TrEMBL record:
Pfam families: PKD_channel, Polycystin_dom. It comes from the Eukaryota. The gene is brv3. This is Polycystic kidney disease 2-like 2 protein. Residues 169-367 form the Polycystin domain. It comes from Drosophila pseudoobscura pseudoobscura (Fruit fly). GO terms for cellular component: membrane. Belongs to the polycystin family. Residues 379-594 form the Polycystin cation channel PKD1/PKD2 domain. It is found in: Membrane. Keywords: Glycoprotein, Membrane, Transmembrane, Transmembrane helix. GO terms for biological process: detection of mechanical stimulus. It is a multi-pass membrane protein.
Length: 724
């Protein structure tokens, strides 16, 4: 029995034992129960195998290495196998024929060892990164939820605009109308007397869509300015403690912990340590930037009566005054059918001149992605992606481990960065899942009587999306480096290498002019147009208009400084920036591209390309596919003889060449290329001669025997095709 056959039998027995054990587990503990248990069992099996691969095998090899180091063993030299098969001259000639048949594809172009090593490394990297990139894209598609946008847009319209029995947030013209809006649109819509029972933690459904329920209670937070004066500096928001009615000095009220809903609206909010990391951001408002981790807040109740009492108390104590800069209403809704969380923030800004500006922010995320909630094909994609990621990480770490000089290469550093970024993404996803579970546990424990800030999970989900976008960008850039074997990618890379200095200079000149123009647009039209209200908004508007995205802006937005000035601004933006500067930038890149192409044509050397290398290096794979019925090409006579078919084909080729010469589409081939082609044809002729000589020797051996073949073997007959 050959070693390969013994290893194959051992492998078959091992796989059979594993499949029998897995089948027994499924039949005994999962098959007769619900489908979720089958998923859980399958995930546990994969996790055990991964634990053995990642943790168990390294520990085993460490123990073996320590054992062999402390107690070394003698080297085992196996005995020579006397029963091995003996090879005769016929076997030698058969192997020689096969070797020469494969050598027919190899010419002098294939003897460039440096080029072959480069192509071999490219093929390995292309297989490694191409496979990883493919499964990464599938994993991203598996996490994509197309219904999030429609759901968030529906909630935003229901909160912002008027309806039959409810009015929208945009109808508020004064800050004193806010409490009426809360009572009518946020409390009455979650009717506790509804005939439809709560679907999650005894929460009543939403009247607009009974699939939605509220998690926790509503929190109302306000930011107060320390003074009414508005100067050049940013407004200062107070964080002092007050008594009800914004009275001072503050003093501790007896039994404050029992009456916290009464005293809490006048005391600054307290935040956890994790909030300083996840929620330390600013809301970008219409008038100012509002910090999240500051202000005074109050919690509403679940019942109408209690909420009415809280709102009446806040109204009597004048909780909203002229010093109030912005009010934020935060709550979270959950859709059981879609497994979707909607984190909602209603913002109402009070301007210094008395008006208010509303805004509705809805962020929809699927925060519960446990294995029980995944579909079978999503689960399969995730598992394959993890296995491919482990193979990618193993190849990257091995390359650096065995040769530390590879760390000097930027692309190897990028490989380590990609693998590390994958690990960070997985860690953030597991941390977000555990955080959401703990928040849901708080909702179930407190019985929807406290505010649970699901924005922590939404911020982590947003961080995951940003990291995944960066990961896809780095992986695409790495694939760009691998695809440099193609002439198009190589030519574009050479163009960037030649033109980066003038292109950067031209880009800086365009940006300087664009910055100045955008600042001028802000000064002239900023007070009358939302598109030029801020500098970055003006910059985005001008860039979109320059590249043709002008459907959202009307030319009248530029005429607030007068018709003459507006006409000049529109001409500068529409002609000078869009036509002159952008076209000059593109024309410069085009000129350098032409120069790089001409240089490549002048320095072009006839060498082996990547696809020819693959055809020889992986000949077995190509032969397998060419033997398939769909790729197999047979000879069709078409009721003609072989000579007639050859004559027709050669006549067609000659007519085609004459036509191309007449149209002047054939390039003049230089002498170097002609000499290279002539040498290649001569080498192929020599290889064919040697191959034919070996075939004749094998034929004589099989027809007349070994002795007869030696007797009639011609002496120096094939010297014409010999390399000696």
């Amino acid at each position: 029995m050959t070693p390969f056959r013994s290893h194959l039998i051992l492998f078959t027995i091992t796989i059979s034992i594993i499949l029998i054990c897995i089948g027994s587990i499924f039949i005994r503990f999962g098959f007769h129960q619900e489908l979720v248990r089958d998923k859980t069992n399958g995930v546990r099996i994969i996790m055990v195998l991964m634990f053995q691969y990642l943790v168990g095998d390294p520990i085993k090899f460490i123990i073996i290495a320590v054992d062999r180091t402390i107690w070394p063993r003698d080297h085992y030299v196996p005995d020579m196998d006397k029963s091995r098969p003996e090879y005769d001259r016929e076997d030698f000639l058969v192997q020689k024929v096969e070797r020469q048949r494969r050598n027919l594809l190899i010419t002098s172009q294939y003897r460039n060892e440096k080029l072959n090593e480069m192509y071999k490394e490219i093929s390995r990297d292309l297989w490694l990164f191409g496979r990883y990139y493919f499964w990464l894209m599938l994993a991203m598609l598996a996490t994509w939820e197309p219904r999030v946008y429609r759901s968030s847009d529906m909630i935003k319209k229901l909160m912002l605009f008027n309806h039959t029995d409810y009015y929208g947030l945009e109808e508020l013209v004064h800050i004193n109308q806010l409490f009426d809006y809360i009572e009518i649109n946020l409390i009455n819509t979650f009717d506790t007397n509804s005939t439809t029972p709560g679907t999650t933690f005894t929460s009543p459904p939403w009247v607009h869509a009974e699939q939605w329920v509220m998690l926790g209670v509503i929190r109302v937070r306000q930011l107060r300015r320390s003074s009414r004066k508005i100067g050049w500096s940013a407004p200062e928001y107070t964080d002092s403690s007050y008594l009800p009615g914004w009275q001072k000095p503050y003093k501790v009220v007896p039994y404050e912990d029992l009456h916290w809903r009464v005293t809490r609206p006048w005391v600054p909010m307290k935040w956890l340590a994790i909030d300083s990391f996840l929620l330390n951001f600013h809301h970008i408002g219409f008038f100012d930037y509002y910090p999240e981790l500051r202000g005074y807040s109050t919690l509403l109740s679940r019942s109408k009566v209690s909420t009415k009492m809280v709102l009446d108390f806040l109204t009597e104590q004048h909780w909203l005054t002229r010093n109030t800069s912005a009010i934020f209403i935060d709550f979270t809704m959950y859709n059981v059918d879609m497994n979707l969380f909607s984190v909602i923030t209603l913002r109402l800004e009070q301007l210094p001149f008395g008006g208010v500006l509303p805004h509705v922010g809805v962020e929809g995320y699927v925060l519960l992605r446990d294995f029980d909630h995944l579909k079978w094909y999503d689960l399969f994609v995730y598992m394959i992606y993890i296995l491919v990621l482990l193979q990618f990480g193993k190849a990257t770490v091995n390359k650096v481990w065995y040769d530390s000089r590879t760390l000097k290469n930027v692309w190897n550093i990028m490989d380590l960065l990609i693998f590390g970024l994958n690990a960070v993404v997985l860690w953030v996803m597991f941390f977000r899942a555990s955080l959401v579970r703990s928040m849901l546990k708080n909702v179930s424990v407190f019985g929807n009587m406290d505010f649970v800030d699901f924005r922590r999970g939404s911020r982590l989900e947003g961080l995951v999306h940003m990291l995944i976008g960066l990961l896809i960008c780095l992986t695409t850039l790495r694939l760009w480096r691998i695809l440099q074997f193609a002439n198009v990618f190589h030519l574009f890379n050479q163009t960037l290498r030649m033109a980066w200095q003038p292109v950067v200079s031209m880009a800086m000149m365009i940006l300087i002019f664009l910055f100045g123009f955008c600042m001028m647009m802000v000064i002239i039209n900023g007070n009358n147009s939302i598109y030029f209200n801020r500098f970055f908004q003006s910059l985005i508007t001008c860039m979109c208009f320059s590249f043709g995205f002008s459907s959202h802006i009307h030319p009248s937005e530029m005429f607030h400084g007068g018709k003459a000035v507006g006409l000049i601004l529109y001409a500068i933006l529409g002609f000078f920036i869009c036509t002159v500067l952008i076209n000059v930038f593109v024309a410069m890149i085009n000129n350098y591209f032409t120069m790089a192409k001409e240089r490549r044509d002048l320095e072009e050397v006839q060498h082996l390309d990547f696809f020819q290398f693959l055809r020889v290096e992986y000949q077995g794979i190509f032969d397998f596919y060419m033997r398939l019925p769909c790729f197999r090409r047979g000879y069709k006579r078409n009721k003609r003889t072989v000579s007639q078919n050859i004559s027709i084909t050669t006549d067609y080729i000659e007519r085609k060449i004459r036509f191309q010469r007449r149209r002047k589409k054939i390039k003049i081939v230089d002498e170097a290329k002609e000499e290279s082609d002539f040498q290649m044809r001569g080498e192929q002729l020599l290889l064919v001669g040697e191959h034919m000589e070996t075939q004749l020797q094998l034929l004589r051996l099989r027809l007349f025997g070994e002795k007869a073949e030696e007797a009639i073997r011609p002496k120096q007959k094939w010297r014409l095709f010999s390399r000696a």
